[in-house]
Amino acid sequence: MPFNATFAPVDPSCTRAAASAPETSPASAEGAGGPLPVLGRDVRVPLVTGGEVTYAALDYAASAPALQRVWDDVAAYAPYYGSVHRGAGHLSQLSTELFEDSRRTVAEFLGCREGDQVVFTRATTDSLNLLSAALPQGTKVFVFETEHHASLLPWRAHDVTYLDAPRSPEAAVATLESALHGAPAGPKLVCVTGASNVTGEVWPVRELARAAHRHGARLVLDAAQLAPHRPVSLAELEADWVALSGHKLYAPFGAGVLAGRADWLVQAEPYLAGGGASRRVARSADGGVEVEWHTTAARHEAGSPNVIGAYALAAACRALTEAGFDGLVAREEELLARLRAGLADVPQVRVLSLFGEGADQVGVVSFVVEGWNSSHFAAALSAEYGIGVRDGLFCAHPLLRTLLGREGDAPGECGAPEAAPGSPSSAGEAPTLNAVRVSFGAGTPDEHVDRFTAAVRELVRNGARWNYRTQEGRCVPEAPDPAAG
């Protein structure tokens, strides 16, 4: 892919330049009406039963494969990158412009309003911890127990009200209204997910934002699962901030975003203290150091930024916009209908849901299988069918306890419990506290979903064809017996 490195000089403040971004190709025709090209689509993996098969990546909710278009854009830029901001060299100025242009691209993708800031971070977790550090003293935080740990845990230093899991979108709004109604005066923040990383169900973000604003609260949206599947606009959803991760948005690992209102961010101490965040540093009369911090997004981006990560994230935003969310959503809904129908044909499968049948949902489905430990089921899907899913508690332990309707000791980290057996649980044995999650997106071929549902039916009907054991808390295939040839 050619790279157009012709550009005009940047202005002295390094805040705006007229560089030309790398030349990019329009969305691939291969993606028109079908899956978008992603990395790894032709990777073949071995099966324990012999032979190999094209890998079916059905763990998009953890990390989506990077779009080929994004990878090509990054590869085109890589030979030209240099240190950003304040550099006089040609490549430094070019990289500065591409970095700031990426910020503008992300702002447009997220429907940012005039005055909103876009801060580049490492991921959603980093973004929400940044916002937590920026909250005014005395802020009261309201968060549903249904959140991913990235949006459940960062607020513990504040006065937090944890809200019970609602059983409908309307109940979510009513629960929040009730909690806010009796809250004392002062700064308040509501944190809510856009789409559940466990059930895929879409939350009523606009209605929750309006409820928050009626009671003088602000709302931050965890869009890590929503943004890869649906358009996200701060202006339309009326949210105050949005956080997301590039690695779930078809970009490589390492970059995320916190976008939204500037006032609390500007008033807070920098998230990290160091170069880039400071506008002026001088020795003070008492022998110390006086610092004047930036009031732009740079205030919370100390150190040399992840320019390639920011550029990759922006490239993913451009690629999804050009592909068109209408077509992407329609195709995903078709795949979701096929998946639901396939699982419905297996009576032993129980799909987990908060809001019940008919709820709006993105391509994320979690379930348990009667008589099976979920870690064993996921291991068999991988080893015998070449299908990659996820099992465990999905970094949402309180939500899984509610959905599974039982108590128990959750694992100390995301994953299957240590007690996971290497075979289906026997009659009367207490089931372990974990589930299986299948998730897909813009790069998923029809065949992967069909292979998955066929594999589920076959495993439930015939059982695993291989022996498995527990190793470091995971179910893994037993090594073949050399004597058996």
UniProtKB/TrEMBL annotation:
PANTHER family: CYSTEINE DESULFURASE, CYSTEINE DESULFURASE 1, CHLOROPLASTIC. Its cofactor is pyridoxal 5'-phosphate. Residues 16-35, 411-430 are annotated as: Disordered. The keyword Transferase applies. It comes from the Bacteria. It holds the Pfam family Aminotran_5. The keyword Signal does not apply. Keywords: Aminotransferase, Pyridoxal phosphate, Transferase. One of its GO terms (molecular function) is transaminase activity. Residues 17-30 have a biased composition (Low complexity). Residues 58-452 form the Aminotransferase class V domain. This is Aminotransferase class V-fold PLP-dependent enzyme.
